[in-house]
């Protein structure tokens, strides 16, 4: 399980709009890395829209935003177009990055157990170290809380 102060595991993954995105190439900017279960579901849509709405404020705090799920880059393209999302969305279709960040967990819904992505956000400082972690995120107000933490870096 990752903890604050540890180096954030690096990755290079396919992204919406084509190409790839590498975490370490974002330095010296800070990074908000938000893991979410699935494109175009109510909570995930609200979360992505909230981060998109605050993108310029995050940019003023020298912070970039990356959303990550197991959906394909093509599905991310449709999700971004449908909801006018401007934050980067990367595809961890194989689940390796989710595993390394500890967000691929057993979930329980209506008594049925299954594996899925736990909604989790990591704030990574400009040196690539984890500055803060939000686990089991509740969407309302979350993007504002992360922005406050990014401004405090």
Automatic annotation (TrEMBL):
<keyword id="KW-1015">Disulfide bond</keyword>
<dbReference type="InterPro" id="IPR050924">
    <property type="entry name" value="Peroxiredoxin_BCP/PrxQ"/>
</dbReference>
<keyword id="KW-0575">Peroxidase</keyword>
<keyword id="KW-0560">Oxidoreductase</keyword>
<comment type="similarity">
    <text>Belongs to the peroxiredoxin family. BCP/PrxQ subfamily.</text>
</comment>
<feature type="domain" description="Thioredoxin">
    <location>
        <begin position="2"/>
        <end position="153"/>
    </location>
</feature>
<dbReference type="GO" id="GO:0008379">
    <property type="term" value="F:thioredoxin peroxidase activity"/>
</dbReference>
<dbReference type="InterPro" id="IPR000866">
    <property type="entry name" value="AhpC/TSA"/>
</dbReference>
<keyword id="KW-0049">Antioxidant</keyword>
<dbReference type="Pfam" id="PF00578">
    <property type="entry name" value="AhpC-TSA"/>
</dbReference>
<dbReference type="GO" id="GO:0045454">
    <property type="term" value="P:cell redox homeostasis"/>
</dbReference>
<comment type="subunit">
    <text>Monomer.</text>
</comment>
<dbReference type="GO" id="GO:0034599">
    <property type="term" value="P:cellular response to oxidative stress"/>
</dbReference>
<dbReference type="InterPro" id="IPR024706">
    <property type="entry name" value="Peroxiredoxin_AhpC-typ"/>
</dbReference>
<feature type="region of interest" description="Disordered">
    <location>
        <begin position="1"/>
        <end position="20"/>
    </location>
</feature>
<comment type="function">
    <text>Thiol-specific peroxidase that catalyzes the reduction of hydrogen peroxide and organic hydroperoxides to water and alcohols, respectively. Plays a role in cell protection against oxidative stress by detoxifying peroxides and as sensor of hydrogen peroxide-mediated signaling events.</text>
</comment>
<protein>
    <recommendedName>
        <fullName>thioredoxin-dependent peroxiredoxin</fullName>
        <ecNumber>1.11.1.24</ecNumber>
    </recommendedName>
</protein>
<dbReference type="GO" id="GO:0005737">
    <property type="term" value="C:cytoplasm"/>
</dbReference>
<keyword id="KW-0676">Redox-active center</keyword>
<dbReference type="InterPro" id="IPR013766">
    <property type="entry name" value="Thioredoxin_domain"/>
</dbReference>
């Amino acid at each position: 399980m990752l903890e604050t102060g540890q180096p954030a595991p690096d990755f290079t993954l396919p992204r919406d709009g084509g190409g790839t995105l590498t975490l370490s190439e974002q330095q010296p900017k800070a990074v908000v890395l938000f893991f979410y279960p699935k494109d175009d579901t109510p909570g995930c849509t609200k979360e992505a829209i909230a981060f998109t709405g605050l993108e310029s404020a995050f940019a003023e705090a020298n912070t970039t935003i990356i959303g990550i799920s197991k959906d394909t880059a093509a599905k991310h393209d449709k999700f971004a177009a449908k909801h006018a999302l401007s934050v980067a969305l990367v595809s961890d279709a194989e689940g390796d990055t989710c595993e390394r960040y500890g967000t691929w967990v057993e979930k329980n819904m209506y008594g049925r157990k299954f594996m899925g992505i736990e909604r989790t956000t990591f704030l990574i400082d400009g040196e690539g170290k984890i500055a803060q972690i939000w686990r089991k995120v509740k969407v309302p107000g979350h993007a504002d809380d992360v922005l406050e933490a990014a401004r405090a870096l």
